[in-house]
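Severity: low
Component: inverse-folding endpoint
Summary: output formatting inconsistent between runs
Steps to reproduce: submit the following structure tokens with default settings.
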């Protein structure tokens, strides 16, 4: 039998960790002296201690530690899930490092254009910005397409999105997923947004998916930021809700995005 200090030295677990694991029932002492309350550990506990030590080193949450001490199938599944989380985190870190390398290499020079926009009705569906991912956006666009087509008012061009402040909130935003249409949707479609883009000059920036640009996780695409900076340099004040991100299509497949914002009526 060993005292707690000896057991800690042999297993790499700190005294604090051993006490915590004892309180959690993960690694209770083999015996506790009735009078001194000194803890004693057995060599038979090495396997459990080493699993817990390895789990700590691997960053496994304490709440998942009991699964590593159970049946082999549950332990293997828990480890596989944690390994997948670590791999995803490494991918995010690698992407962030690549973006940082690109940013340090110098700013991307974006080409801006000015064009005349025509009058265009649109229909859209809205969701909070923090819950929309690419798959969900695709489902929203597809659902609205089917609904508009069934009503005899199919989309007349490429889809687009815009971000705006959520109604009644100064901190939350929402995404509007839109299709251009020949006529506004019926008034009784209460769950569908509608509006009209009036004619005027737009400033435009485009990017293709294969372009080497520093996309930072959690930040808006740099082309959008470049467009806003270009508009500001012209002395034009625009709101984020005026910026449209329009899908660029080739043979019906998305190949990039066009960002446009009104600069003159």
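Observed output (run 2 of 3):
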């Amino acid at each position: 039998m060993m005292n707690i200090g000896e057991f800690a030295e042999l297993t790499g677990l700190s005294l604090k960790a051993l006490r915590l694991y004892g309180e959690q029932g993960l690694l209770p002492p083999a015996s506790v002296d009735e009078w001194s309350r000194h803890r004693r550990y057995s060599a038979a506990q090495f396997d459990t201690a080493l699993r817990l030590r390895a789990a700590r080193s691997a960053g496994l949450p304490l709440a998942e530690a009991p699964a590593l001490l159970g049946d082999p199938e549950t332990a293997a599944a828990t480890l596989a899930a944690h390994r997948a989380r670590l791999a995803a985190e490494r991918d995010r870190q690698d992407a962030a490092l690549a973006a940082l390398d690109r940013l340090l290499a110098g700013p991307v020079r974006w080409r801006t254009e000015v064009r005349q926009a025509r009058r265009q009705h649109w229909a859209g569906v809205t969701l909070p910005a923090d819950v929309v991912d690419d798959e969900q956006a695709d489902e929203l666009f597809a659902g609205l397409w089917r609904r508009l087509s069934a009503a005899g008012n199919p989309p007349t061009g490429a889809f687009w999105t815009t971000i705006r402040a959520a109604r009644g909130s100064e901190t939350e935003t929402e995404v509007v997923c839109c299709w251009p249409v020949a006529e506004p949707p019926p008034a009784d479609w209460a769950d569908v947004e509608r509006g009209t883009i009036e004619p005027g000059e737009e400033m435009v920036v485009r990017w293709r998916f294969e372009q080497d640009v520093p996309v930072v996780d959690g930040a808006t695409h740099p082309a959008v930021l470049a467009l806003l900076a270009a508009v500001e340099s012209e002395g034009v004040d625009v709101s984020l809700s005026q910026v449209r991100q329009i899908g660029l299509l080739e043979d019906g497949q998305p190949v990039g995005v066009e960002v446009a914002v009104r600069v003159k009526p």
